[in-house]
Amino acid sequence: MMGAETYIGFEPPPPKEDLETLTLSDHHSQIPSIDPPSYSHAVDDPSSSTPKRSQSSDYLKISVTDPRKEHDIAPTSLVPGSATYVTYMISSRTRDLAEFRVRRRFRDFVTLADRLADSHRGLFVPPRPDKNTVESQMMQKHEFVEQRRLQLEKYLWRLAVHPVVGKSEELRPAKGGRDLLRIFKELKQSVTNDWGGARPAVVEEDKEFLERKEKVQELEQQLSTASQQAEALVKAQQDVEETMGQLGLSLIKLVKFENEEAVYNSQRIRAADAKCVATAAVKTSRLYRELNSQAVKHLDILHEYLGVMLAVRGAFSDRSNSLLTVQTLLSDLSSLHAKAEKLEVASSKIFGGDESRIRKLEEIRKTIRATEDAKTCAIREYEKIKENNRCELGRLDIEKHDDFLGMLKGFVTNQVAYSEKIADVWSTVVEETKQYARDTV
User: Fold this and answer.
1) Compositional bias of type Low complexity: which residue ranges (predicted)?
2) What's the CATH code, domain 4-190+216-440?
């Protein structure tokens, strides 16, 4: 299985300065500049932080803006004020047009995610963005902050459009002056308990659930494979972009040399034709860069669903833990009843009863009553988690179908459109250099 830390990123490299600034002014190679259909014409742009299901949310707007560096004045710091962190302005507007603003840091989002996971066991709660400590050290500071800002905004939207989480107490719309992120004002950093050590095996008897769980595991493996293939595709297109760019630049240098050193008119003619090919190569490089940028946006849905798989695994883990609690309590009750029965038999053999045994029997019966109450609560919680799992699996099937269909439509649309533009570029070259084909016949 793939964890959040192993997600494959296939962002293309930044534009190369020499190709970007190169002026292509050859009048022989002009082609109509027709932009290919944007992804939004086929489906909603997955790079946007506002999901297409926002119509079902109680919120008209959720934004994370204005990142600001703050000094940490916590008393635990060795040098007060030396540590820094970034805060973000979180704004929301509900459908009754109430607006709220609050400034919070990433640690508050961590606490929010912990609280939501604890209060919505069995649901596929959207995972929060990772801390990415290593990435923050490798990237430029402003680039990392902007990337995190977009991730946090997308995360809040995913929470808001979730049919259960979006209407929960933690994210309830404004009532009596409360804002979308009311919980941020009450939260304190929580301590995560480490469930270490060996656990007894959990016996799951729901065959339908086991079949669905196996299918989800297969889906996660397929997503992992598809993500690797997507990375390979983007890398291949990036290689073509770089190769065509270098070819174009090399030919342009050759053309410059030919023009400067030309003695005969035929040399100048060949130089002009070479410039035509060079211009086409550079244009092709630029088109591949644009195509790759679009491909990354479309295929990013694969990474998003790998994140969803983490939420699914968390919900299934909640179910297993809850079932383990029920089974443990049932086992405890069986053991307690056996002890009580043994004490009753032993006491009945003594005339007048044994006070110590009677007292111990009463304590066991009291423990049995408390364990029965705990068992009832545990079964109720387990049934609730089971129902949450069932509803969430149905929702996942529907949304996965829509999202993947949209991803494929957008991906194919842009692949075809850019391929046609690239074909037009080289068709022009073929037309302008066709005399060479006649000369070789």
Assistant:
1) 47-57
2) 1.20.1270.60
